[in-house]
Design goal:
The structure is a single chain. The chain is an all-alpha fold. The protein has one domain. The protein is about 70% helix and about 5% strand. Strands 1-2 form a two-stranded antiparallel ribbon. Helix 6 runs antiparallel to helix 7 and helix 7 runs antiparallel to helix 8. The longest helix is centred in the C-terminal third of the chain and has 28 residues. It is globular. This is Integral membrane protein.
C-alpha cells in the first residue's frame, strides 16, 4: 500500500515555493511605484518637494519590511513542508492574494488621512497572518505534508506565532477606530514580541508535558 507521501494527490512543494517567491517579489517591487514627486516640481524646487515624500517613504519602508517578514515566515514554513496537496495549494493561493493587496493598502495609508486607511492596512495584515496560520495548521494535520522530524514545540509555535501577530493587527483596528490612526499604528509594535511570546508559551507547555 502506498504511503501518504507517495499518493498522486500530493506533490513536491518546489513549484509552489517558486511561484510564491515570484508573486511576493512582484508585490514588494510594486511598493516603489507610489514614490512620486509632484509633477510640477522643477529642478529648483526639488529640495522643497522631497520632504513631502516623508509619509510615502515611511509607508514604503514599513511595507517593504512587512512583505519581507512574510516571505521569511513562508520560507521557514516550507522548509518543514516538503509536500503539498490540493487543499494546501488553495490556502497558499489565498495567502498570496492577501499579499498582493499590501501595495494597495500602502497607497491608501500614504495618501489619505483618517482612521480608515490604517484599519484597511491592519485588516489586510491580519488576513495575511491568519492565512499563514491556516497553512501551517493544514500541513500539520494532513499526513505526509509536514516533515516527520519537526518537533512538537515547533509544530505548536508555528501555529501560535502568526495567530499572535494577527491578534495584534486585529486589535489595532479597534484602537485606530477609538483613538485615531497614530495610536493604531503604534499598536503594531507589539507584533515584534509575538515570536518571543509564542516560544515562551510553547516551551512552557512542553515542559509541563514532561512533568
Amino acid at each position: 500500500m502506498a504511503t501518504p507521501s507517495e499518493t498522486r494527490s500530493q506533490y513536491g512543494s518546489e513549484r509552489l515555493i517558486t511561484f510564491s517567491d515570484g508573486v511576493m517579489a512582484v508585490a514588494i517591487t510594486l511598493l516603489v511605484l507610489d514614490l512620486k514627486l509632484p509633477e510640477a516640481a522643477s529642478q529648483g524646487s526639488l529640495a522643497e518637494a522631497l520632504p513631502g515624500l516623508a509619509s510615502a517613504l515611511w509607508c514604503y519602508a514599513l511595507s517593504f519590511v512587512v512583505i519581507g517578514v512574510l516571505w521569511m515566515a513562508h520560507h521557514n514554513q516550507f522548509a518543514n513542508i516538503p509536500r503539498v496537496d490540493g487543499g494546501l495549494l488553495w490556502l497558499n493561493l489565498i495567502f498570496l492574494m492577501c499579499v498582493v493587496l499590501i501595495p494597495f493598502v500602502t497607497s491608501l495609508l500614504s495618501g489619505h488621512d483618517g482612521a480608515l486607511p490604517t484599519i484597511c492596512y491592519a485588516a489586510v495584515l491580519t488576513a495575511n497572518c491568519v492565512m499563514l496560520a491556516l497553512i501551517w495548521w493544514y500541513a500539520r494535520r494532513t499526513p505526509g505534508l509536514m516533515a516527520a522530524d519537526v518537533s512538537e514545540q515547533d509544530r505548536s509555535m508555528g501555529l501560535l506565532a502568526p495567530l499572535l501577530v494577527a491578534a495584534v493587527f486585529a486589535g489595532s483596528i479597534g484602537v485606530a477606530y477609538a483613538f485615531g490612526p497614530t495610536a493604531g499604528q503604534w499598536t503594531w509594535l507589539l507584533a515584534a514580541g509575538a515570536g518571543w511570546l509564542a516560544n515562551r508559551l510553547t516551551s512552557t507547555d512542553a515542559n509541563a508535558n514532561l512533568v
